[in-house]
Each structure stands twice: as C-alpha cells, then as structure tokens.
Amino acid sequence: MKDDFDRARPHILASLLDRIVVGLQRLPRVKLDRLPRMADFALWATACEREPGAFMRAYEVNRKELVEGVLDADAIASAIRKLMSTRTVWTGTASDLLVALEQVMGERAAKSKGWPTSAEALGRGLRRQATFLRKVGIEIERARPPHQGADPPHQDNPAAFAR
Fold first, then answer.
1. Cβ–Cβ contacts within 10 Å for residue 21, how many?
2. 13 and 54: one domain?
C-alpha cells in the first residue's frame, strides 16, 4: 500500500500544481452570483475547478444537508417544521406555541429530555434555531412589548411564524 502511494505521489503533486496554475490564471476573472461565507475560499475553489459550477453546487448541497441535520437534531425546530407543514401562518404567545407544539408532537416528545418546560425555555430554543429555520423558509417574528429595554423573564411575548 505504501509503495503504491509512493509511486503515485509525484503524479498527485503534479495534478495539484496543475490545478493551482489554472486557479491562479482564472481567479481575477471569477465572479459568483452570491458570495457565501468564506468568500475567498469559494472564489479560489471555483477558479480551480475542472467543471464550471461544480464547487458551488457541492457547497450548496453540503450547506443544505448541514441545515437539515441541525434542524432534525433539535426537538423545537422539528416541532416548528411539523406545525408549519400544514399552514402558512401561526400567531400566538410563546405559551400558546408550547401547547400547539405539544399537540403536534405528542405526549412522548413533550416529556422528552430536550423539550422546553416553559415559554421562556421555548423562546431561548427558538432564538437558537431562528437562522436555520429561516433557511428552510420559516420566519419567526417576535413582538416586542411597548416599553424600552430587555424583556422581563416572565414576559410571554406574542410570536408569529410565516412560511
């Protein structure tokens, strides 16, 4: 096995150096419709690719899989997705939402370790997952009370979801 690798090593290095040369030539002309996170890396990878668009297609597939994995692993996010799968809008307080999610997910989920036990805990969980939910088309709007400053911990602010 090591002998095979030792024989292939010069060819592997030559292929990598060839792609670097191509990348250096193309980089000044590379334009992407939208710059993702780590934009410099995306530009460099696009400049070096053999098939036009291959890197960004793979990048988007990986990003979508990551978002799905994060959402699937979170009890609150999974419940929100299930709730919103049959509607386009939901409006109510955090307490109302907790009840609605428990009805959608069932008693077993509501008694599981990762399930929120209060409206405040649900709010924290929603804040953590808001960015990922937005990526799958679920917007969370949280109404602010009319006064200035931070919400008191017992505040049960209205929330709205839209798909």
1. 11
2. yes
